[in-house]
Write a structure and sequence with these properties.
Layout (H helix, E strand, L loop, with lengths): L8 E9 L4 E3 L3 E3 L2 E7 L5 E5 L2 H6 L13 H16 L5 E3 L1 E3 L3 E6 L6 H40 L12
Parallel strand pairs: 5-8
Antiparallel strand pairs: 1-4, 1-6, 2-3, 4-5, 7-8
Length: about 160
């Protein structure tokens, strides 16, 4: 497991669309958008990646578009991302680094974090709790029905007397 931590910011200083396309999960090829940042804490240049998957699938690329798109759509999407990043050249942004395992690389954000995992588990947990509460309420209603039925079978002599004052 990698220890990605935020130590200082990164200054975006180069965005380029490489001529060589890279293989996308063995399905097709895609354009490679390389983004270089200057990490302010270390003063070194790092390749920026959108998240952990981008680093694993294409270590030289920032962003990986969907693999099943046609080449023209892939190129257009990569150009849109390049233009958006190009407008932010020279600006500082928060980035994550792991100098122990991924030297020379930085992440824009974590795809797999504890917060995201907890948020992903929140809705199923609420549904499970709601379902359990529903089962308890049904069982309680059944028990109250049985008690009511048993009280209805008793004769008037078995029922408690109500003294009116």
């Amino acid at each position: 497991m990698s220890n990605w931590v935020e130590r200082g910011g990164c200054v975006l200083y180069q965005v380029e669309l490489l001529q060589d396309w890279v293989e996308c999960r063995g399905v097709s090829i895609m354009p490679c958008l390389r983004v270089t940042v200057n990490h302010s804490a270390s003063g070194r240049a790092n390749l920026l990646h959108h998240h952990e998957d981008a680093l694993i699938l294409a270590p030289q690329c920032f962003y990986i578009p969907k693999c099943k798109m046609e080449a023209a759509a892939l190129q257009a999407e990569a150009l849109v991302v390049k233009d958006n990043l190009g407008e932010q050249l020279g600006q500082s942004l928060a980035c994550l680094t792991d100098p122990a395992k991924h030297r020379g690389h930085a992440l824009l954000h974590r795809k797999y974090s504890l917060r995201r995992a907890l948020l992903a588990l929140l809705w199923p947990s609420l549904m499970l709790g709601g379902g359990a509460l529903l089962v308890v309420l049904v069982k309680l209603t059944q028990q109250l029905g049985l008690v009511h039925r048993d009280l209805g079978r008793r004769g008037p002599e078995d029922r408690p007397l109500h003294i009116q004052t």
